[in-house]
Design goal:
single chain, F1FO ATP Synthase, elongated
């Protein structure tokens, strides 16, 4: 194979962008959760359940992107 191999860069971008998005998403959801529990403390149980559901889905997307990136890095399905 001749030329520049961009697979490591692609894997780094895949994992890095997914990590950045996941961190920002969970941070914003956590901020809104704290604001809403301060405004209406009687809804803490309902809001906490929804917060953990959204945080799990957001983190799950990051874990899937990491798994796909590591699969590309080790198996190299394109080459």
């Amino acid at each position: 194979m001749t030329g520049f191999n961009i697979l490591p860069l692609a894997v780094a971008l895949l994992i890095g962008v997914a990590a950045l998005g996941s961190c920002l998403g969970i941070g914003l959801v956590g901020q809104k959760f704290l604001e809403s529990t301060a405004r209406q403390p009687e809804l803490v149980d309902t809001l906490q359940t929804k917060f953990f559901l959204v945080a799990g889905v957001t983190d799950g997307a990051f874990i899937i992107a990491t798994g796909i990136g590591l699969w590309f890095a080790t198996a190299n399905p394109f080459g």
